[in-house]
Specification:
466 residues; single chain; 16 helices
Length: 466
């Protein structure tokens, strides 16, 4: 039982960067796939952009909930790796693949029927109708991405994130070419409109899965884990652990995703211009968030490694190093949205498009709020995943439930409608919820990791005596 960290803070930062660097590049590339899809569709006009933007956001939120559940397999694999138990890490990954297939069924049904759900949520009939061909073509991407996520979590748990970056970066160009071809009928492809964008994403997702599976199968250093040698046998004990820890994590991710989804839906109630502005705003917010997500996933792996090797001081240090690096990086990015708001709008809509001036004015106004809260959005994501590395799931869920909805959605709706602030009010409420969540999750990690360190100190004399 170690009472001091195995590595100094600079060493821990270097180890974190070795995991986080490729993950950040991979997540930026993965996010760029959705952005390039919007860019391709945006040339069709405001209505197709609003429809595909909202539909893709809703589908992505459902996906990230399932990814949250699956992330437990990465924690289990990382703890086993930290303890030097390779076969156990491989077994956890195999159960992750089974879980991915289980989770695919309800998510595919949900995405297929999202057009009807959009209508029930009060969205414009033309927007919902325009989204349905895209959603139907997008549905096959679900099992591919969930299986890819299970394999990605396994590889990240072993601190081998380089191939994830290479595969995902290559997928961006592949997705853009396919989307251009299938949306606009270029290079001999049929002109499918918005359906072509969904089909392109589905094809690319299966190609990504095949590439990562091939890497794991052929990499000699990964053969000791037996991921593909052993039978894909259902292990109820591990599956129960995945769902016991994963369901509150998925619920927390769902509350966070629902926060942004609710703001998107409320933006649609305000009008198509505000909904289009929301898509532009989210396109920027996604960049600092996925940077934070790469750091957060690396922090989770480092915390879980320390837990596996029975190093509570190392787990505590890993979490705070991740938080410091993430908050510092996101603070440096604050200037970009303040200076480039109109330029970002032009990426999605030509200046000659009807409604461009309204959308650009809304984006410029709200970017001030977005620039402030992006730091806290990243901080709460980092702390939530570091708590995940400690297998702490239920208290963060309660924190998220309070901060994201009563403060975030409730406060934003109050400011937007009764108090008349419109879209700016929605984003002020969003910011308030995320700021409070970041503070409470940081306090939770400090308290829980400190308690584990104190318990280890109490046991140390007994262990030495024995």
């Amino acid at each position: 039982m170690r009472l001091t960290p195995e590595h100094s803070p600079p060493q821990e930062a270097r180890r974190l960067f070795r995991i986080a660097g490729p993950l950040i590049a991979a997540y930026l590339a993965e996010y760029a796939m959705f952005v390039t899809t919007k860019l391709v569709v945006g040339s069709l006009g405001v209505e197709p952009l609003a429809a595909v933007g909202l539909a893709a956001s809703l589908a992505h939120e459902g996906m990230v909930i399932m990814m949250g559940i699956l992330s437990v397999t990465g924690v289990l694999a990382a703890q086993a790796e930290g303890a030097g138990r390779k076969q156990e890490a491989g077994h956890a990954a195999r159960q992750g693949l089974i879980t991915a297939l289980i989770l695919s069924v309800p998510l595919m049904a949900l995405i297929w029927n999202l057009g009807s759900i959009m209508r029930l949520a009060g969205q414009d009939e033309a927007v919902a109708a325009a989204a349905e061909p895209f959603l139907h073509a997008l549905t096959p991407f679900v099992p591919a991405m969930l299986l890819f996520t299970a394999l990605r979590d396994f590889v990240a748990a072993l601190s081998r994130t380089g191939p994830i970056m290479a595969i995902t970066v290559a997928a961006v160009g592949f997705n853009w070419l396919l989307a251009e071809a299938m949306v606009h009928g270029r290079w001999g492809a049929p002109e499918l409109g918005v359906a072509g964008a969904g089909l392109a994403t589905s094809i690319v997702s299966w190609a990504m899965l095949a590439a990562l599976a091939l890497y794991i199968w052929r990499k000699p250093a990964l053969r000791g884990y037996g991921l593909f040698r052993a039978r894909l046998r259902f292990d109820p004990k591990i599956i129960r652990v995945i769902f016991r820890l994963g369901l509150p994590i998925g619920a927390m991710v769902g509350l966070e995703a629902g926060l942004f989804t609710a703001v998107a839906l409320l933006s649609g109630v305000i009008g198509a211009g505000m909904l289009a502005a929301h898509q532009v705003l989210m396109a920027w917010i996604g960049i600092p968030f996925v940077i934070a997500l790469g750091i957060a996933e690396a922090g989770m792996v480092r915390v879980a490694h320390a837990v596996g090797r029975e190093d509570p001081a190392g787990a505590r240090q890993a979490g705070f190093v991740a938080l410091g690096i993430g908050a510092g990086a996101l603070t440096l990015l604050v200037a970009a949205p303040l200076l480039l708001a109109e330029e970002m709008t032009r990426l999605f809509l030509p200046a000659s498009a009807p409604g461009f001036d309204e959308v650009a004015a809304l984006v410029t106004q709200i970017m001030v709020v977005a620039a402030i809260f992006q730091v806290f959005d990243g901080a709460q994501a980092i702390m939530a995943r570091c708590l995940r590395g400690l297998r702490d799931a239920y208290v963060p869920l309660w924190i998220a439930g309070f901060c994201y909805w009563p403060l975030g959605v409730g406060g934003g709706a109050l400011l937007a409608f009764p108090l008349g602030l419109g879209g700016a009010g929605l984003w002020i409420g969003l910011a308030a919820g995320l700021i409070v969540a970041a503070c409470l999750l940081t306090f939770r990690f400090a308290r829980l990791s400190g308690r584990r360190l104190a318990q280890a100190a109490e046991r140390a004399p007994e262990a030495a005596a024995s």
